[in-house]
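--- STAGE predict ---
source: upstream dedup step, 1 unique chain passed
mode: sequence only
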Amino acid sequence: MNWRDIKNPAAGGAEILTHEMAKLWVMHGHSVTQISASFKSSSSQDIVDGVKIIRMGRWYTVHVQAFFYYVLNLKNKTDVIIDEVHGLPFFSKLYAPSKTILFACEVADKLFFKVFPYPLALFGRTLENIYFSHYRNLPVFAISPSTKEDLVRHGFSSRNITVLPMGLTVPKKIKKFPKEKNPTLIYLSRINKQKGIEDAVQAFSLIHKNFKKSKLWIAGSGDAEYVNTIKKSIRQMGISSSVKFFGFVNEAKKFELLSRAHILIFPSIHEGWGLVIAEAGIVGTPAAVYNVPGVRDVVKKGERGIIVEKDKPEFLAEAVIKILENDKLYKKLVSKLSGFKREIGWDNTSNTSLKILKKYENTKA
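--- STAGE serialize ---
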């Protein structure tokens, strides 16, 4: 159970991870059904790479509808329920406790107050605390050491948590493109407050003062009203001619842009992992990031990326300027990205999770 499936226009790294594991489970002979929210023009049912996808409701109603669908259609046909949480879980623990495995992509915690207005943030945080109290004794999949640490801090047992080794999907014939002539930064993610687009733009405005010919590419989609707000801010800063919006891009275009850019600017304030950092690393582009949960795990605490200790755009800009001004330092940073090649593929992720799933395959309750 996950609020989005791989075909959802808003799908991100978590959905790639989820689908890659699921399709490999199918290849091992298992049957996988995913319940997710519907989206504009989506079908109610789909089969993708052998994974059966059932869509219903929207992101804010699918949790309740999934319960009724499970009771009416899957109760006696299912060995394990993977309850994937993004802020809130599906609460399958309440109706199938012995079958539920929690899949934690992140712990929202104080993030609610950074993204939502106070009353809504307080409500979300309260619900998260409630689900923590119910899920603490269940087996858990976590997608990073940081996520595990957050869960332990909230009362989960370390021995019940399995940190899944992350994988990476790249095109079969991935091509590296030459870097742009002028310093080029790229922001590639959903355009929203949580992912840090506002900080990315502010940081670039400071970088642009030092590098007048520098460019910022923004690739990704977001709420139209919010995107227009960002564009207005860019106009007010006087850097419109140096910023280009690409909108949503396909896989081939994504890797092309990442390859041509000099630095991925990724000022997300909270992540479970940060898949795009690894994708950029594969094509030789280092990322500049904040020192936040999940992200620090990808860049190995600064060993394969630029990590900024204070989560402010001026510090991000200062770090990027330092790298762009020193060609030797930049090349040294790029040389450390070779480690990302070892993460290509999802077999290790799938096999690790499958070992845990098999412990519950004969559950009848």
